[in-house]
């Protein structure tokens, strides 16, 4: 569930009176999501999403997130558009929390992603990277390699409760990642959480990307590594090479990869797996039993990490067209 903060009808009516979005007809809490409280608003002008930002979101980051959606939508990407109040602001306060109204995207996220969904997602990811060019606010990735050790130290003592031997395995993977993390790859704005539940489709057609609340500046190809993790493994833990090919083909149809980016893909995929393993592990160990939030299994990402640690080169992910690898000067 994700309604941590209740909103009264009177407060909501007062809040939306500052916007040109018509009269409130009805509203309801949205159960999905874990970070923020989301409501669907139905007004005389249509549907909107109201988000109340909860305590894991740093209010100082909100101008980046809202400004980014505005920038991306302005550059033709299909994503929610923050609605401006009559005073020009996109951020307000409701029920004591920072709050924003964003446009409603039609579509559903794919419960069983297909090869076509993977290809369309690859294209949309690259389109987002291109559309993000020129966005002026910078937000370093708070969940990149430098943050993993402190995050790990908060779970290390109890890690073996989840799986015997986990502490040693994570420590070894972390040591290797810190030593070998690449430098100097092309950077830009990345989504950093483009999982199936953040990509909407109408049939096979991608209708939009949501949830930019982990977006930040980092290596562009790291975002592809995150998507390989999130989209290309089957529920039994096996890697689906056909989906990998489709995702990477889709991406490189829109933005080509340099030889350095291709070479870095295996270590970036390991890093992405460790990042989600660590955040899931922390939540797994700290979320109280009986909380309404569904805890995500860290072991899924342990299996993925093991897979990546055995990968030699990007062709094992499905990178196949020679044209994917930009020629570098001799
Ligand atoms: N612009 C939008 N249009 C339509 N539905 C939306 C929109 N934004 C959010 N939703 C709905 O709200 C749900 C939760 O949104 P979101 O993923 O942003 O929440 P969150 O709390 O940040 O969750 P998490 O970070 O766990 O994914 C989505 O699954 C979707 O059903
Ligand atoms: N996508 C993350 C959840 C946070 O958005 C995960 O699956 O662990």
From TrEMBL:
GO BP annotation list: threonine biosynthetic process
CDD domains in alphabetical order: HomoserineK_II (cd05153)
Coiled-coil region list: none
Name by which UniProt lists this protein: Homoserine kinase
Family note: Belongs to the pseudomonas-type ThrB family.
Lineage, opening ranks: Bacteria, Pseudomonadati, Pseudomonadota, Alphaproteobacteria, Hyphomicrobiales
Gene3D superfamilies for the chain: 3.90.1200.10, Phosphorylase Kinase, domain 1 (3.30.200.20)
Keywords for this protein: Amino-acid biosynthesis, ATP-binding, Kinase, Nucleotide-binding, Threonine biosynthesis, Transferase
Pfam families from the UniProt entry: APH
GO molecular function, a single term: homoserine kinase activity
Domain Aminoglycoside phosphotransferase: 27-254
Protein EC: 2.7.1.39
Record pathway: Amino-acid biosynthesis; L-threonine biosynthesis; L-threonine from L-aspartate: step 4/5
Reactions that this protein is recorded to catalyse: L-homoserine + ATP = O-phospho-L-homoserine + ADP + H(+)
